[in-house]
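2024-03-11 09:14:02 INFO worker-7 job=invfold-0412 stage=load source=structure_tokens
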């Protein structure tokens, strides 16, 4: 028993790095060591390391490892780089700080850290199986406080990709040129900047909130929860006067385009029929939307924003409206006749007075539908 303990102690006893290496190390992890249960080790590494997504959003090809393909590639790359740096380093002490190689153990820094910001290392032991073609046996990943590494001093450092200033693409001595074209050239980004109060030094807390029943969704706060507005919270980027002037210009442009803050008025001037089609149930306008397979339909704006509980809504294909001459706001109603869906069109003025278009549609011999010809009450004419 004492002999086994002594042998174990000698196994982990620290040895100074050799002054001269007799052979180069294979930069391929699987050629360097025997690695059993590789995917199990990767799963353990994912659990140890700081949370990060290791999956491809849209993989270009199928891989055997579907859980952590990015992590697998990263470990192979970092191992290869450290071995190459180790092989090319002539100073044994510097080489030992890159990749620790002794008689009984090997370890390298993965460049990853635990949630307690402890470095994570890959650890190898001497392969005692005589029939094996690999000299080393991969034991797994562990943090720097693990007992496996207690006799290794100093521990290898994480990879340094550029030691000299000439080896990097960015020279800190060069003057910095600000390029904002990719920001200001994007209309969506520019719109967010123009209406963001942070640019004038203010701060609005809880502009958005997370509903209790939908923890993974955020919604704009329209009074559902308490919000707070802090004036002069930080140093402004633009003066408050300039910011307020910009808001006046934005509001004037909205009025010119007939776009208001009310959601039902946002889309009144985008298409020829915008603001002209009215839902018969809630009285709001129909909105043009692209649906399944790029099909264009007009839907009730209340139904779009608040769902079927607020309004059961109406929808009509854009193809049904082609060729119609609509001169004023028109209420569109669905009528089921002989098991088929037809549409009735009534001016909003007549609809509000209780007048309905009595003739829904006229059917021809081949069951096709023609529009009604009730001229006094109709403002929609099929040409």
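2024-03-11 09:14:09 INFO worker-7 stage=emit residues=383
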């Amino acid at each position: 028993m004492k002999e086994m303990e002594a042998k174990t102690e000698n196994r982990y006893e620290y040895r100074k790095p050799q002054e001269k290496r007799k052979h180069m190390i294979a930069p391929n992890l699987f050629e360097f060591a025997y690695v059993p249960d590789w995917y199990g080790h990767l799963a353990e590494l994912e659990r140890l390391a700081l949370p990060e997504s290791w999956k491809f959003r849209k993989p270009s090809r199928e891989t055997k490892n579907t859980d952590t393909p990015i992590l697998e590639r990263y470990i192979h790359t970092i191992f290869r780089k450290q071995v190459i740096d180790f092989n090319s380093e002539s100073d044994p002490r510097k080489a030992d700080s890159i990749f620790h190689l002794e008689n009984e153990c090997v370890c390298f820094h993965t460049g990853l850290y635990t949630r307690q910001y402890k470095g994570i290392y890959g650890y190898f032991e001497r392969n005692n199986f005589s029939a094996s073609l690999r000299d080393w046996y991969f034991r797994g990943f562990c943090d720097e406080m693990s007992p496996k590494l207690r006799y290794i001093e100093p521990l290898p450092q994480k990879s340094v990709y550029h030691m000299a200033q000439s080896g990097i693409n960015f020279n800190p001595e060069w003057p910095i040129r600000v390029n904002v074209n990719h920001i200001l050239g994007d209309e969506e980004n520019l719109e967010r900047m123009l209406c963001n109060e942070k640019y004038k030094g203010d701060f609005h807390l809880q502009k958005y909130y997370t509903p209790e029943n939908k923890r993974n969704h955020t919604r704009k706060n329209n009074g559902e929860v308490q919000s707070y507005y802090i004036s002069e919270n930080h140093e402004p980027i633009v003066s408050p006067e300039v910011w307020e002037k910009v808001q006046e210009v934005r509001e004037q442009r909205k009025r010119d385009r007939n776009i208001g803050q009310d959601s039902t008025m946002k889309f009144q001037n985008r298409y020829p029929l915008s603001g002209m089609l009215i839902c018969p149930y809630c009285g709001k306008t129909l909105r043009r939307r692209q649906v399944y397979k790029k099909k264009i339909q007009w839907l009730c704006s209340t139904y779009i924003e608040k769902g079927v509980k607020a309004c059961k809504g109406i929808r009509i294909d854009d193809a049904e409206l082609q060729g119609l001459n609509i001169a004023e706001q028109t209420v569109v109603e669905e009528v089921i006749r002989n098991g088929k869906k037809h549409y009735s069109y009534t001016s909003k003025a007549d609809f509000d007075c209780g007048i309905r278009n009595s003739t829904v549609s006229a059917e021809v011999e081949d069951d096709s539908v023609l529009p009604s010809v009730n001229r006094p009450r109709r403002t929609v004419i099929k040409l």
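2024-03-11 09:14:09 INFO worker-7 stage=report msg="The chain has three domains: 2-56+63-149, 197-256, 264-382."
2024-03-11 09:14:10 INFO worker-7 job finished
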